[in-house]
Write a structure and sequence with these properties.
The protein has 147 residues and is an alpha/beta fold. The protein is built from 4 helices and 7 strands. Strands 2-1-3-4-5-6-7 form a 7-stranded mixed sheet, with helices on both faces. Bound molecules: copper (II) ion.
Length: 147
């Protein structure tokens, strides 16, 4: 009985320690244009979800996207680097956490364009359907989530 209680307390405290550390481990490095407002809102969304965010205003985003192998048709407003992954556009923090946890072999995740209702693109209650797509350098793509 006592052992069960101790084990339960231990498991609870372990969860408390590991859960925030998951997000806190990786700094999100964001590249955006100096005038992008929805990019700032996405940065807020990431911080609200426990991520450390480092923002860089750049004039030549195309060069950043090319350097990180973001396919033309998957591009959005901002590009971010988290650990070894590239995050393109308004990708929800939950999907980034899932990717970091899975350690999947992929270049990164993208939400192409700027769908209304994605994190940082809120517009009243409007929610346009969108997909989170994982992509790699060889052109392989997988839809990992849909909203
Ligand atoms: Cu945007």
């Amino acid at each position: 009985m006592m052992r069960t209680v101790i084990a339960a307390i231990f498991a609870t405290s372990l969860w408390l320690v590991t859960a925030p550390a998951l997000a806190g481990d990786e700094t999100v490095v964001v590249y955006k244009s100096p005038t992008c407002g929805c990019c700032v809102k996405w940065v807020d969304h990431m911080r609200d979800n426990g991520f450390e965010v480092d923002v860089h205003d750049v004039d030549d985003l195309a060069a950043i996207k090319a350097e990180h192998h973001v396919p033309g048709d998957l591009q959005s407003c901002h590009t971010a680097i988290v650990g070894d992954y590239v995050i393109e556009g308004h990708v929800p923090a939950a999907d980034i956490l899932a990717l970091l946890e899975s350690k999947a072999e992929t270049t990164g995740l993208a939400v192409p364009g700027m769908p209304i209702g994605s994190p940082g693109m809120e517009y009243g209650n409007r929610q346009d359907p969108y997909a989170v797509i994982s992509f790699d350098k060889d052109g392989k793509r997988t839809v990992v989530n849909q909203y």
